[in-house]
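Deviations from the work plan: none for this task. Representative record:
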Amino acid sequence: MLLDVKDLKVYYSTLRGYVKAVDGISFGIDKGKSFGLVGESGCGKTTVALAITRLLPPNGRIVGGEIQYNGMNLLSMKEDALKKEIRWKKISIVFQGSLNALNPVFTVGDQILEAILLHENLEKEEAKERVRELLSLVGISPERINYYPHELSGGQRQRIMIAMALACNPEFTIFDEPTTALDVITQAQILELIKDLRKKLNLTSMLITHDLAVVAELCSDVGVMYAGKLVESGKIEYIYEDPLHPYTEFLIRTFPSIKGEKEFVEVPGSPPNLLNPPKGCRFHPRCPYAREICREKEPEIIEVEKGRFVSCHIALRR
Amino acid sequence: MRISGKYFVRRAFRAFLILIVLIILNFVLPRAMPGSPITRFTGDPRLTPSFRQKMLEIYGLNKPLWEQFKDYLFNLIHLEFGISYTFYPEPVSSVIKRNLPWSLFLLFLTIAISTSIGVLIGMYAAWKGGGKDLAITTAALASRSLPAFWVGMILILVFSYHFDLFPLSGAITPGKIYLSPFEKIKDIIWHYFLPLVTLVVFYMTSTILLMRSSMLETLGEPYILTAKAKGVSGWKIIAKHAFRNAILPIVTNTGINLGFAVSGAVLTETVFGLPGMGTLLYQAVMNRDYPLLQAGFFITSLCVVIALFIIDVIYGFIDPRIRYE
Amino acid sequence: MLFRKKGAAARRFERFILEFKANKKGIAGLIIIVSIAIVAILAPYMAPYDPKKFDIKDAWLPPCSKHPFGTNDVGQDIFSRIIYGSRISLMVGVLSAISSTIIGTFIGITAGYMGGIVDSVLSSITDIILIIPSLPLLIILVAYTKPSVWNIILVIALVGWTGTARVIRSQVLSLKEREFVEASRALGADPLYNIFNHIFPHVFPIALIYIIMSVVGGILSEAGLSFLGLGDPTVVSWGIILYYAQARGALVRGAWWWIVFPGLAIMITGTGFVLLGNALDEIFNPRLKAVRM
């Protein structure tokens, strides 16, 4: 396994107490595979990405668990070693490019150049050449190297973010909501691009999204998150054909055809308060199958078959 | 280069518009306010009709309003502001010509020094946070309620009176003969040191607070996270990535705060007895020297408008989003 | 419907109290303000002497047991003058702040809500007054009117509303875009109703902060004007005390007590308001650190 996350717990400290954004999550990603992390907004998906890359804000704390990358313990690494060996060279991350993820006062070329010069020993001209290569790789004309972010469209900016993340040939890349806030056509283009790049560069990737269709397109494995917990995970075909957790079932059912229209998933009720999550199974207030035991006891994580996990009291008995 | 000229044209137009309003304001105010000399003359019942007629003639008030305005504009363009009562028989324009450079000198130095220091302190406070930040912020907030002239007085008390380090007032030592221009410069710096400290302390606080909050806001932006993810080191994030963005509001604010700086300069010049527009305004009010008062106000505002336009132009060059519209 | 509104408002108020109590600067500011207010209200009982009474043989006394803050050139007790001065300085500060904020809020809401030509005209006027240096403008305005406390308050208010107007206008503009205002408009609700019910509750906290922040400006403007000799000669204010200090040569004679104490009074009072305003600003404005999920 390239990335091994065990029982990760990340809490944010606020005036009103601790927000338990990630509360005991475990999953693994093998080399060359792509893992999709799905869930509603605010369920803690991005926090997982920030924890892996150690980019949490000052009030976010990793209070438990382990993250192993290629046998190395990421959480106990010193900041310097992390920067020199891991950041961008081994693990890189792509944020939502259509928002303000690119610095408005520098050209896109300069920003990619910076990533290269920070980690590789290249002359400025060589590095610039590489920037142009990267731009063509993601489908942007190399002439745009001197453009400012606001002169490009949302889709183009997302491509720039991807180019920047691949600048140092990383092994593992996290894509955080790569298609959110883009129009449907551009979304399809970006997805094609990511698929293409993955194959070309033999990239291991993790995709964070609330959109099941994206996961279906790109990922080999999927993990479903709800309220800071991983409720189901496994190979994507099995999960889609036979969802075990009620939440997963609902996510899938609300999509009449995965490759069809895109809708925002609407589960009845509202997302739980992560300051004070519900007792027992966190999904029980909205679960149509909830029983007495669901209100009392938190379900354990069961390995139904190799590589297939679910956390639900009634998963196998419906 | 895809620089658009639209921005600069818009800014120039705005400056021009303000100028027009200023000109009109300067014409209307003395004629409208109850305490002004003109209305006093026309409204005072104790004056004999012939005397009043004479005064009206001298002030040109017997002519129709339209003609008065024409004369006013004509005089304005030729920088003809009348004769000052205080410096009789020196014309106002010459008085202003003598004093304006001193004010410009003082203000330019003030803004340059206080902006530089203020920006650095603000950045430091935003970066360090915690106790140091709280101390700096509280000190800056407390300084906001310091009257500029009081700071000057205290400085004079301590450094001029007690320690005899600096002169009590004036821009140059009266009657001194200089052996070289270098000596003159030294003398001026010696005289201007305390006033500059006063004004810098006065003007710096808003820069510190603004830079701090601008920096904090910038540091919360997604592109800073991107830079951190890339592996850019802490200081570089502040100095390179955040700074260029955080400094933008400072530039615009310098323009808006110019009036504030001028007000401070007026008080400081008065306390330290320095030559300049502030002292002129003060003397004009004391002596009810209306020609000087009006001209002084007008020229001061005019300089502010010009400076504002220059700052707008500078901003246009710094923020690429404006340039490439 | 009404019950739910009450619940929400009460909850917001509770949260506000909680956050305020946690803000040390705000508490300090509030304590200072209340103390000064008490001094101003109880002035006749707190001042040992009549501020206008003078006695030449007691002139130029440094601080001593009889006169804790010393005396001025005609023997008036500076301590008493400062206590009485708090009344005028506070009054000018508070009244001018309230007036200028009311004007600014009114103009800001009108410009923001009406948009179009009304907005352009009002914004231009705001910008122009904003740009013209305030003290010279104040000087001109006061020079043309009778020197009295009320004129000074009026003049300061007339010059000082621009900052408030700008901020409130931009707030109204962003509020206008929100759905509930558009929905209300579509229902055909009277614009005044819209303004009071939807816009005002959001604008009010900002106006409140500006009132508090403007008090300092008002106190300083009054002090500046009085220092330049444009104040009301019939009253005692901290600025007037300093005017006499400068005019009667306190600097040349080294009478530091005449200068230091009035200035400290201004500074402490101003700091109180600034701290309180800053605390409110931190509470009402969105926190600068975003919690990412």
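Chain A has a mean pLDDT of 84.
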